[in-house]
């Protein structure tokens, strides 16, 4: 596609429910990042994939958060037993590796609201 | 852990005035990137700096990487209303792929 696509754009869920957020990176980009951005804050790193493997998941806040990228393209961020504190905009970014820490292209984000 | 701070947090300027935001890292960086985020939008890449003391220009924007590779600045000359948004720096430590974003500077330009 022309850019990074994230679905849904908005998600409202009840406390305790399970949610999945999807990211379609730019075709050919091997690196994929998930960030979380709260109002008035900078993006907070969650996890980084190089291909199918999670090269760095040190930003995941706890074991309720999990992300997969089974075929090295689309990624899904999964949140179990959601809490009100999980409410934020979840951003996905992809980049073309092999050129020395290249620029990351961000999607529009999924705004998650836990009520 | 690593922290990346930006000052000021907010800046209001009259159209035509200059603007500068400063980025400071608690650790030495291998490179630094700058992003702009419009209200309601997502971060958009502006530039990447890699070398110590590097200076890059994009029209009215001037980016600088400090000699010690722990700080950076973005200067906008003669601001325009289209410059409105939040400017983030994002630093990368050597040997990692985890960009740490700064706290951001929100710029408002008054016409």
Write structural notes for this entry.
The complex is a heterodimer of chains A (115) and B (111). Chain A contains no helices and eleven strands. Chain A has 115 residues and is an all-beta fold. In chain A, strands 2, 4, 5, 6, 9, 10 and 11 form a seven-stranded mixed beta sheet that branches. A four-stranded antiparallel beta sheet of chain A has the order 1-3-8-7, with no helix packed on it. With 111 residues, chain B is mostly beta strands. In chain B, the strands form two sheets. In chain B, strands 2, 4, 5, 9, 10 and 11 form a six-stranded mixed beta sheet that branches. Chain B is globular, with a radius of gyration of 13 Å. The relative contact order of chain B is 0.34. At the A-B interface, strand 4, strand 5 and strand 10 of A face strand 4, strand 5, strand 9 and strand 10 of B.
Annotate the secondary structure layout.
The complex is a heterodimer of chains A (115) and B (111).
Chain A: E1 5-7, E2 10-13, E3 19-24, E4 31-37, E5 44-50, E6 53-56, E7 65-68, E8 75-79, E9 88-95, E10 105-106, E11 110-114
Chain B: E1 4-7, E2 10-14, E3 19-25, E4 31-37, E5 44-49, E6 55-58, E7 61-65, E8 71-76, E9 85-92, E10 99-101, E11 105-110
